[in-house]
Amino acid sequence: MEVMQVLHMNKGDDENSYAKNSKVQSKIISLGKRINEEAIMQILCSNIPDIMGIADLGCSSGPNSLSVISEITDVIYAKCRELGRPTPELKVFLNDLPSNDFNFIFGSLPAFYDKLKKEKGSEFGPCFVSATPGSFYGRLFPSRSLHCVHSSSSLHWLSQVPAGLESNARTAMNKGKIYISKSSSLCVLEAYSLQFQKDFSSFLKSRSKEIVPGGCMLLSFMGRRSTDPTTDESCYHWELLAQALMSMVSEGLVEEEKVDSFNAPYYGPCAEETRLEIEKDGSFSVNRLETFEIDWDGGVDDVDTTSGAASRGQRVAKTIRAVVESMLESHFEKDIMDELFRRYGEMVEGYLSKTGTKYTNLVISMVRN
Ligand SMILES: C[S@@+](CC[C@H](N)C(=O)[O-])C[C@H]1O[C@@H](n2cnc3c(N)ncnc32)[C@H](O)[C@@H]1O
Predict the structure, then answer these.
(1) pLDDT digits (tens, 9 = 90+) for 312-355
(2) Among 165, 225, 235, 278, which lies 20 to 30 A Cα-Cα from 181?
(3) Which residues form the signal peptide (predicted)?
């Protein structure tokens, strides 16, 4: 499975799209807002460039990316006003894998520019938004061209399924599971941890070349509080998806071998292993590294009746489906998806009625040395 080719959030804006099912990720962005504002204010204290490069990595196709850019521009405008300085020209780069639905996000650009002009009035400095398709695990931008890099809910995706766990491996090392599980062997845990280290270090190396000294990087992604990757907070949303698949295996609707040969290219690290990679790289100083808990449905009170997801379990299932469906479709049959996510929703509902398990999100702000 080539992650570059098969991973994309559900396109467009229909019932199962990422655009309609990304409230959890929006909530995650709002949790990091204070940390982001503080970091941007800080970098602008020392120098306000004439032209400022800003990138959102893993922008996807929903409304979240442009709302983050809007928040970043608000902070820049506020700081310039406070210092009585003209606002810089903004070059905004939206990055994602090439199969992302960039057209959908471009459709919202006229409204984004209008809002900016209306809100900023005479202060409005030019803002140029463009797309940069490619993997953030390699170089994407020219050297020292960025002042602020943001990425949310994206870096838990690995560049590939860890070595030894690929779908064409000779022996299935993680039978009946699709991610780290309590019953996974040490080899599986190590393979995932190693792949994260390799990927995160490539990410830091690339960004260290692209960000100007004094520039900031604001990251948030799924992780865990515990150093143990098999705790429920780390992996139970995958465990239930594996159980839903296995229930279909037991009824002959899915081949067991298909489940055995699928492992998600995902890893939720703990704060310690993340910090270790940043220290090993040595190009960035961490200002803040905090963990937040978030409900599996984002704790959203405005239940989305248009998508028909009435129960908590169904809402979680829709959120997960919008994210992983493209990847599952490429491995399993496309026509099992409705039934799979119906079962998954029921299992999530049952599980959440008994436990208070939440996701853990890491939020990090760092400065390029
Ligand atoms: C859950 S979405 C998050 C979107 C948005 N940042 C938000 O908070 O709503 C994760 C995005 O990361 C992208 N992604 C995953 N791996 C990537 C990579 N190596 N390079 C660029 N984008 C990647 C996916 O394609 C997906 O669009």
Answers:
(1) 899 999 999 999 999 998 899 889 999 999 999 999 999 998 88
(2) 278
(3) none
pLDDT digits (tens, 9 = 90+) for 50-86: 899 999 999 999 889 999 999 999 999 888 888 888 8
Q: Where are the beta strands (DSSP E) in the chain?
A: 51-57, 89-96, 127-133, 146-152, 211-223, 284-294, 359-368
Q: Decide: 328 and 8 in contact? Cβ < 8 Å.
A: no
> How many angstroms separate the alpha carbon of residue 82 from the centre of ligand 1?
34
Residues within a 6 A CB radius of ligand 1 = 7-9, 22, 25, 29, 58-60, 62, 64-65, 95-97, 100, 135-137, 152-154, 157, 159, 323
Domain boundaries, the chain: 3-368
Query: Of all protein residues, whose CA lies closest to atom 20 belonging to ligand 1?
Result: 135
CB-side neighbour CA atoms (13 Å) of 234 = 21
Q: Which CATH class is domain 3-368?
A: alpha beta
Ligand 1 center–CA 155 separation, angstroms: 7
Atom of ligand 1 nearest to the CA of 136: 20
Pocket probe mutation, ligand 1, options 157, 196, 202, 362, max atoms within 8 Å of Cβ: 157
Q: Whose CA is nearest to atom 10 of ligand 1?
A: 154
Residue appearing with tokens 């705790």 = 231
Closest CA to 27 of 305, 315, 241, 285: 315
